[in-house]
Design a protein that fits this description.
By secondary structure, the chain is α/β, with parallel strands linked by helices. It is built from 34 helices and 25 strands.
Length: 946
């Protein structure tokens, strides 16, 4: 029989590593009280209204928020109850402090190692029974709490996969677990067990538990408490509640209220909001006030129409209506995220949000200049002292040595405001460790996704699954796109509504179409639709009306000496610039190799000066070292943005990196053939700011050159006239979509494209959800391309459906979120199908055999000290020189030839690098043979692979 009257034995420790060795370890009961106090404060301050309401509803406590609050505190206060087991002896030093009565039976606790999370899950039933929780239902509240305890290290376990009774100890240990649980329970006012505890709600509670645990496990905080323990547990809990305020604020997680300013002042934009933006400000508030369970909004408009500011105005309205605290702004790539981060930072600053938590969220975000080196060194979190870390996993557990709170692994999404890549959010619906923490982070803020058209079928399914969960939590969502097919938007809205509780059968008879340009808002509770008013739609269309001239140039790749040779055609098109008439041109290539070759030809023909020498021809692609790419992106955007100064002559040769979210304006855009939606994106960089300049004047007072008398897109089409897709394009784009685009361009070439009127019709013509195919009108090659395209699309959707966690209302047990065997963390799954990549460091072997970061030999590769803890500044110096490349490049290479220095082997980032050792001769890199190809890093061209 368990005895509530036992007193917690404070020789039983909760934290030891990193604390003052002259003092006993930190008592477990006090750590449990710390976590409970922090969970209460998170409920009060960090959680948004929608989260608190969903949690209470899911516990059957609608309207009883205080009861739900106490139960969340209890879950946090019991998270480490499994440490009252053989765990106490996993640390020899800490185990010496365990009282003799309990230590006497340690020899009978077995030699099996197990995680204290699993031990706690196993012991939860007996502990909770003491607290009045019964487990007679099929999935009782007691079993749900057991799942949460088992999942507090980020991975949920099956209830039946617990530890054996020997690991948990004899009756004395049973009594101590009851005593510790009772101490927490009493401190919280002895909350009564709920009648229900829904699985999706338990996911959020698990996120709260993890976050509370991490916050109160910071080394500096624990050292201070260890040295000044209060005489009583009551006094300790009271101080823990007071400390929680400071800990949350210092972590950057306390929400900051912005001082909302007028449109122009908030965004630093001259003039009034455009009709699209104004309609959101005027018409959305009434629509958002209809229901109380969130809603989803889709905004469609041409590139350059101010969709980002439109989204932020929508966020202001939606966050106020539904009680969310901030927003996450997600984009397709790291480059676009970096650009948006700067814009959001300025916007927050303009609204007195300098104290708000703002983070950049992608795998290389910490390399950004926005983060100083001293921001990356920070306080260590004392973790589980190694009771469940398998041998060889130390390098992988980067999150166990975090930097400052919002810089550490898996934490940036927790900030009130976050900007990053969509991948970081999609991890929430993949079976990876800490997906519950990501779900907590995403569900307390308004969710904004830019460039919603830019994701392949695999990512669309994952995005739909995430929207399904966010719909359940009542999270307001804003999707932005310039070229989204109506069928894709319809599917995403329906996924959200299904999560919000709408029946699939009822939704099948509905279609949610968004006007172009315009917006559609669908209320999560009622399903009611509100569109941008027709008058505002017309006004927006007229304000951005432009007829884009489209010229199709048949080309042949590698057709030297022929008039249709691709390079010869480009040179002819750029002849006005080459002859000194000035102007700006953007040449977009489909592959890095084509971009490098095009750049070389144009540089030698037009300028003969390299980038470093200040030449008029610039090259931008993703295969430059990170620091070089950041500099080049800034230089390109500074020369072609709205504010100027505009260069007299500038030709930018680039890849797809310029398609999205980069603010560029060129006099003419020349592009390789690509699917029509992407051509429209590229064309969005042509005369992007013309309307603004017509009203406010051109930068430097200099207009466009005489030869640029209209916006013009020139498409280099290798399929025109019966040609074939160039071999070097590989599988960059679907041959079926390229063929449809080529045929559509032939139809519209004479009339051009009316923007925005023609955009949606063109997108639907090529990318619409048409299942029909005219077999009689097609040749064998077209039929094969169609079959391959549909087969690949179907396969990608199927793989995503298999990888993703179940839809929110299909989850019965929390283990369903980790049901795929072997998926431990982000490195084992991908949010982008076929996107396996590695980071390559191009180092230089000097004549004395030394390795350096530069060809001149002035910057030696830093070596890690014996403890493996290299200074952050040194790690950043190395990582900023790395380049993301396809992993299959090195499939046939000798692994040892690309391995990093041995001193880096255990480092969580440097240990995974591939190092290309290039012989340096007279300050120049020599090519290296790798897997049948030759690689070298050229200062002007970037990484070359031939």
């Amino acid at each position: 029989m368990l005895r509530r009257q036992e007193v917690p034995d404070e020789s039983l420790w909760g934290k030891s590593r990193g604390l003052d060795p002259a003092l006993p370890p930190y008592p477990l009961v006090r750590h449990l009280l710390d976590a409970a106090a922090m969970a209460l404060h998170l409920w009060d301050v960090y959680l948004a209204d929608n989260q608190r309401e969903r949690i209470a509803d899911g516990m059957g406590l609608a309207g009883e928020l205080e009861r739900a609050r106490a139960l969340v505190g209890l879950c946090a206060g019991l998270h480490d109850i499994g440490k009252l087991s053989r765990f106490q002896f996993c640390s020899r030093r800490a185990g010496q402090f365990v009282s003799s009565e309990l230590a006497a039976g340690s020899g009978r606790m077995g030699a099996v190692r197990a995680g204290h999370d699993v031990a706690g899950m196993t012991a939860a039933a007996e502990v909770l029974k003491v607290l009045g929780f019964e487990d007679d239902d099929e999935m009782s509240a007691a079993e749900r709490v057991a799942e949460i305890i088992g999942g507090h290290h980020g991975r949920f376990h099956r209830l039946e996969d617990g530890v054996g009774p020997a690991f948990l100890g004899d009756a004395a240990w049973v009594g101590q677990r009851a005593a510790h649980a009772t101490a927490v329970h009493d401190a919280l006012g002895a909350p009564v067990a709920p009648d229900s505890f829904d699985a999706p709600v338990a996911v959020l509670v698990t996120g709260v538990v993890i976050l509370a645990d991490w916050l109160v496990s910071q080394e500096g905080y624990l050292r201070g408490r260890q040295r000044t323990l209060e005489p009583s547990l009551t006094g300790h809990f009271r101080r823990s509640q007071a400390d929680a305020v400071t800990l949350l604020r210092d972590a950057g997680l306390a929400p900051v209220r912005l001082q909302r300013k007028g449109f122009a002042e908030a965004y630093g934009i001259a003039g009034e909001p455009n009709p699209l933006q104004k309609s959101v400000m005027d018409e959305l508030p009434a629509a958002a006030g209809v229901g109380g369970r969130g809603g989803i909004m889709l905004v469609t408009a041409a590139p350059g129409d101010g969709k980002s500011e439109t989204a932020l105005e929508a966020e202001r309205i939606l966050s106020k209506a539904f009680g969310t605290h901030g927003y996450v702004f997600l984009l397709p790539t790291m480059a676009t995220s970096d650009q948006m981060y700067e814009r959001v930072a300025r916007t927050l600053w303009n609204q007195s949000g300098e104290d708000a938590g703002l983070t950049l969220v992608h795998s290389m975000a910490w390399l950004s200049g926005a983060y100083a080196d001293d921001d990356l060194d920070g306080e260590t979190v004392v973790t589980c002292d190694g009771d469940e870390a398998p041998a060889g996993r130390r390098r992988r557990e980067a999150d166990m040595r975090p930097g400052r709170w919002l810089r550490g692994s898996k934490r940036p999404l927790l900030a009130q405001f976050a900007v990053g890549t969509i991948d970081q959010a999609l991890m929430a619906v993949l079976p990876v460790r800490h997906n519950a923490l990501r779900m907590l982070a995403l569900s307390n803020k308004t969710f904004i996704v830019d460039e919603a058209h830019a994701y392949d079928p695999y990512m669309q399914v994952l995005l739909g699954r995430l929207l399904n969960w966010l719909g359940f939590y009542g999270v307001p969502v804003v999707l932005l796109s310039a070229t989204l097919p109506g069928s894709v938007g319809d599917r995403l809205i329906k996924e959200y509504l299904q999560g919000a509780g709408h029946k699939t059968k009822a939704l099948k008879g509905k279609t949610f179409l968004t006007p172009y340009p315009g917006w559609l808002y669908v209320d999560g509770e009622s399903g009611r639709c509100t569109q941008m008013s027709q008058d505002s739609q017309l006004e927006q269309a007229l304000s951005r009306n432009m007829r884009l001239r489209v010229d199709v140039e048949p080309v042949v790749h590698g057709g030297e000496g022929r008039a249709v040779d691709r390079i010869a055609v480009i040179k002819r098109l750029l002849d006005p610039l080459a002859k000194g008439f000035g102007g700006t041109a953007l040449v977009v290539c489909n592959t890095v190799g084509d971009a490098q070759e095009t750049y070389l030809q144009l540089r030698d023909e037009i300028d003969r000066r390299s980038h470093q020498e200040g030449g008029d021809v610039l090259l931008l692609h993703a295969r430059f070292p990170g620091d070089v790419r950041e500099e080049r992106t800034a230089e390109v955007t500074a020369g072609l943005d709205r504010n100027g100064p505009r260069p007299v002559r500038r030709i930018v040769v680039a890849t797809q990196v310029v398609e999205q979210s980069l603010d560029l304006d060129a006099d003419v855009v020349i592009s390789d053939l690509a699917p029509l939606s992407l051509l429209l994106q590229r064309a969005g960089r042509c005369w992007r700011h013309e309307n603004h300049w017509q009203k406010h004047g051109y930068p430097d007072g200099r207009g466009r050159p005489a030869w640029a008398d209209e916006p013009r897109l020139v498409v280099l089409d290798p399929l025109a006239g019966g040609g074939r897709t160039p071999v070097q394009w590989g599988e960059v784009y679907s041959e079926h979509l390229l063929g449809k685009t080529s045929r559509k361009l032939a139809e519209i070439e004479e009339d051009g494209i009316a923007i925005p009127e023609d955009v949606q019709e063109l997108v639907e013509a090529v990318h619409g959800d048409s299942k029909d195919f005219d077999w009689n009108a097609s040749g064998n090659r077209e039929a094969k391309a169609w079959a391959e395209h549909k087969g690949k699309e179907t396969a990608e959707r199927s793989v995503a459906a298999l990888c993703a966690v179940p839809r929110v209302r299909q989850v019965a047990a929390l283990h369903d979120l980790h049901a795929m065997e072997g998926e431990e963390d982000e490195w084992e799954v991908s949010t982008r199908l076929g996107a396996d990549s590695v980071r390559l460091l191009c180092a230089y072997v000097q004549e004395d055999g030394g390795l350096t970061l530069d060809a001149e030999g002035k910057r030696p590769l830093p070596e890690a000290p014996r403890d493996g803890r290299m200074p952050v500044s040194s790690v950043r110096q190395v990582m900023r020189r790395t380049i993301p490349v396809r992993a299959d490049w090195f499939r046939d290479a000798e692994p040892e030839s690309l391995s990093p220095p041995s001193s880096w082997a255990e480092h969580p980032m440097l240990g995974d690098l591939r190092v290309l050792r290039q012989p340096a001769r007279e300050g120049r890199a020599q090519a290296v043979k790798v897997g049948g190809k030759t690689l070298f890093l050229d200062q002007d061209l970037g990484l070359v692979r031939v």
